[in-house]
């Protein structure tokens, strides 16, 4: 799996007197199994970059090629299918469906994929066990803490066996203890499932765990470095 | 996503805001209850009164000679022999067929005269059908098929100052230019509900009328009745098929256009009231659906981002709206049915002036209710139509939703 971004540009209000360039001619490549943090201040264009990588937003210019497919050329319908089968999403506010249990939330995308009920349930139970929520299968999000909800969101993102997971500030609403627990889980799943994780964040706790850090400023890649990721036992609260 | 999962998700979604869902469903239920009660009362009354009124005058259908309707000529008659009766029996759905000979004559008593409507009826069959004997206010009903007696409308009797036993002369044109003239004794004075007819009507036994007009065994009309008012169209279709082109088949609305117009106006005003009611409820339903759409725009965007197709999402929200509407419909039916059932078996008895007005018009002074399935189906269809109209909004919103904007909370 590889993601190849070339000359990616997004300008909001391009035909007005005040155009805003959120992403400015960015070139980037992400490979299989990477655990990447895209960091930068608010408004630097991190979320816009992730949205275009995930086919949620369309660029004004440039290409996003995932395993040979230029997703900027896909139709709306094709993009929905691509997102469903190839990309996992984790949102800052968890964004679980409030009326579904933890198990059903994880099954949701697999249901969309048309997988059998048995397969959906087995995979969802496995993932919820992996994230330490094997005893919370039938709890609705309202009955879970913020950290537990985000762990369900991680399990949901991984459920359809995506090529990569995009996480937009996944720890922004979590305390330190919960953040480290979540990062442990994501690291383990990154290794176990071989799934690429790409985070947008300005949380130093996430950055210290990333194996690669891309610093984003004013819509451009200011720095792209390989980091020495801390192991869980190295962490300091 | 399996249909079962979609249904489960939609059902749970509507109960996220229990109070709002219950208020919206409750509004639909109350609208359904009120409209069902109103329509049930209307249709029940129409059906009952029409059955009453048609028995006394037009019947559900009349068979007439093809030329009779034009000028009601005494020369345009139908046979009353056994062969013709057999043809009538072949009409599917006919429960009663009674012969009548209707024409005009100059009536005279003392030194007064007046144009009258002469109605020759088969005494026993007519009484069994229309209960004519019960309308006799003074005197008696016919005792034989060919007695030289008349029953006179109350207003007409007043005009001529007739009393039971008085003589009454009829004079007019008979069959094929013959002279129709006869002297009869007033056997009784009847009350005909329609005042205009009450001032003109004179009943004779059929054979007496046939002798007066020298028609032989012929009649001006065969009056047909069926099982129920709603079966009239089928009855009419069968009658046309069986009787051919020489026989004119006319329904009650054609014979009594005033009554048809009156019912039509009443029905239209009722429908207008119901549409106003549903209009108000429709705005309530729309407000709920709009709120359900607007407050969940980010959730919709997340669902689209994670791979749910727009069509599936649209189906989900329409299903949610459908569940709210169906909850309202079920609540409405549960409330309405016992009420309608009670009034179906215990019609409202009218009293005072209203009762008199009804009786004047020839209707029984009661307000019966209808339990016709099409009544319920019609109201449910209105609710579902409202639902379809209201659902256009979320469907359009989801169609236009940009996922990136939606994730930021914009729709």
Separation of the first and last Cα atoms of chain A: 34 Å
Poorly predicted residue ranges of chain B: none
- Morphology of chain A: globular
What's the alpha carbon Rg of chain B, rounded to whole Å?
31 Å
Largest sheet of chain A: 6 strands, mixed
CATH arch. level architecture of chain A: 3-Layer(aba) Sandwich
Strand content of chain A: 25-35%
Percent of residues in helices of chain A comes to: 25-40%
Helical amount of chain B: 55-70%
Structural class of chain A: alpha/beta
Number of structural units classed as domains of chain A: 1
How many helices of chain A?
7
Low-confidence runs of at least 5 consecutive residues of chain A = none
- CATH topology group of chain A: Rossmann fold
CATH homologous superfamily descriptor of chain A: P-loop containing nucleotide triphosphate hydrolases
Structure description:
- The complex is a heterodimer of chains A (237) and B (411).
- Chain A is globular, with a radius of gyration of 18 Å.
- Chain A contains seven helices and ten strands.
- Chain A has a six-stranded mixed β-sheet, sandwiched between helices. In chain A, strands 2-1-4-5 form a four-stranded antiparallel β-sheet, with helices on one face.
- With 237 residues, chain A is an alpha/beta fold.
- The mean pLDDT of chain A is 89.
- Chain A has helices spanning 46-53, 76-86, 102-113, 117-130, 146-158, 176-193, 204-207, and strands at 2-12, 20-31, 35-39, 61-66, 69-70, 87-90, 164-168, 196-201, 212-217, 220-226.
- Chain A has one domain (2-234): 3-Layer(aba) Sandwich (Rossmann fold), CATH 3.40.50.
- The longest helix of chain A has 18 residues, at 176-193.
- By secondary structure, chain B is α+β, with helices and mostly antiparallel strands.
- Chain B has two domains: 3-53 and 260-407, no CATH class; 58-254, no CATH class.
- Helix content of chain B is 56%, strand content 19%.
- Chain B contains 16 helices and 14 strands.
- Chain B has helices at 3-14, 18-56, 68-71, 82-89, 123-130, 154-160, 195-198, 206-213, 232-243, 252-255, 257-294, 297-305, 310-345, 352-360, 373-400, 403-407; strands at residues 61-65, 78-79, 96-109, 112-121, 136-139, 149-153, 167-173, 179-190, 201-205, 218-219, 221-225, 247-251, 348-349, 366-367.
- In chain B, the strands form three sheets. Chain B has a six-stranded mixed barrel. A two-stranded antiparallel ribbon of chain B has the order 2-10. A two-stranded antiparallel ribbon of chain B has the order 13-14.
- In chain B, strand 3 and strand 4 (112-121) form a beta hairpin.
- The model of chain B has no long low-confidence stretch (mean pLDDT 90).
- The chains are: A alpha/beta (237), B alpha+beta (411).
- The A-B interface holds A 48, 51, 54, 56-57, 76-77, 80-81, 83-85, 89, 91, 95, 97-100, 104, 108-109, 111-114, 117, 156, 160 and B 1-2, 5, 9, 12-13, 15-16, 298-299, 302-310, 312, 403-404, 407.
């Amino acid at each position: 799996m590889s993601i190849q971004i070339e000359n990616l540009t997004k300008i909001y209000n391009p035909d007005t007197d005040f155009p805003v360039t959120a992403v400015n001619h960015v070139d980037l490549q992400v490979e299989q199994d990477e655990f990447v943090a895209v960091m930068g201040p608010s408004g630097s264009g991190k979320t816009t970059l992730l949205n275009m990588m995930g086919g949620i937003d369309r660029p004004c210019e440039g290409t996003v090629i995932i395993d040979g497919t230029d997703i900027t050329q896909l139709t709306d319908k094709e993009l929905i299918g691509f997102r469903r089968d190839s990309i996992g999403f984790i949102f800052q506010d968890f964004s679980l469906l409030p009326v579904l249990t933890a198990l059903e939330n994880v099954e949701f995308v697999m249901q969309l994929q048309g997988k059998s009920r048995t397969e959906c349930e087995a995979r969802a139970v496995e993932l919820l066990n992996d994230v330490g929520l094997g005893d919370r299968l039938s709890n609705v999000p309202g009955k879970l803490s913020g950290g537990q909800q985000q762990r369900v969101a991680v399990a949901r993102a991984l459920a359809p066996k995506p090529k990569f997971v995009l996480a937009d500030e996944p720890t922004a609403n979590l305390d330190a203890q919960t953040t480290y627990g979540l990062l442990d889980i994501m690291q383990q799943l990154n290794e176990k499932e071989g799934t690429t994780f790409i985070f947008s964040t300005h949380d130093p706790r996430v950055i210290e765990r990333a194996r690669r850090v891309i610093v984003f400023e004013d819509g451009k890649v200011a720095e792209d470095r390989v980091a020495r990721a801390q192991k869980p036992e190295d962490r300091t609260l | 996503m399996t249909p079962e999962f979609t249904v489960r998700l939609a059902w749970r979604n509507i109960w996220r805001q229990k109070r709002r869902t219950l208020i919206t469903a409750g509004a639909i239920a109350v609208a359904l209850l009120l409209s069902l009660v109103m329509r049930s009362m209307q249709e029940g009354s129409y059906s009952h009164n029409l059955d009453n009124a048609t028995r006394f005058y037009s019947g559900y259908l009349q068979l007439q000679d093809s030329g009779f309707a034009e000028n009601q000529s005494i020369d345009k008659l139908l046979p009353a022999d056994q062969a013709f009766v057999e043809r009538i029996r072949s009409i599917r759905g006919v429960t009663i067929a009674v012969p009548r000979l209707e024409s005009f004559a100059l009536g005279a008593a003392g030194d007064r005269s007046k144009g009258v409507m002469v109605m020759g009826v088969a005494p026993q069959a007519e009484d069994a059908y229309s209960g004519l004997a019960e309308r006799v206010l003074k005197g008696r009903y016919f005792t034989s098929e060919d007695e030289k007696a008349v029953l006179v409308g109350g207003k007409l009797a007043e005009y001529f100052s007739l009393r039971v036993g008085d003589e009454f002369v009829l004079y007019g044109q008979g069959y094929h230019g013959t002279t129709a003239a006869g002297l009869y004794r007033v056997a009784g004075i009847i009350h005909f509900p329609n005042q205009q007819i009450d001032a003109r009507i004179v009943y004779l036994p059929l054979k007496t009328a046939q002798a007066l007009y020298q028609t032989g065994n012929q009649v001006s009309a065969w009056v047909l009745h069926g099982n129920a008012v709603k079966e009239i169209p089928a009855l009419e279709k069968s009658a046309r098929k069986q009787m051919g082109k020489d026989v004119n088949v006319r329904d009650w609305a054609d014979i009594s256009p005033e009554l048809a117009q009156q019912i039509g106006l009443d029905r239209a005003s009722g429908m207008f009231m119901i549409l106003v009611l549903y209009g108000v409820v429709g705005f309530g339903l729309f407000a709920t659906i709009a709120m359900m759409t607007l407050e969940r725009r980010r959730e919709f965007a997340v669902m689209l981002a994670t791979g749910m197709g727009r069509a599936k999402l649209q189906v989900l929200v329409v299903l949610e709206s459908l569940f709210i509407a169906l909850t309202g419909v079920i609540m409405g039916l549960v409330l309405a049915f016992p009420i309608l059932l009670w009034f179906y078996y215990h019609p409202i008895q009218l009293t005072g002036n209203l009762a008199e007005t009804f009786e004047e018009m020839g209707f029984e002074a009661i307000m019966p209710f209808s339990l016709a399935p099409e009544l319920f189906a019609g109201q449910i269809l209105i609710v579902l139509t409202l639902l379809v109209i209201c659902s256009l909004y979320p469907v359009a919103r989801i169609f236009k939703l940009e996922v990136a904007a939606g994730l930021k909370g914009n729709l």
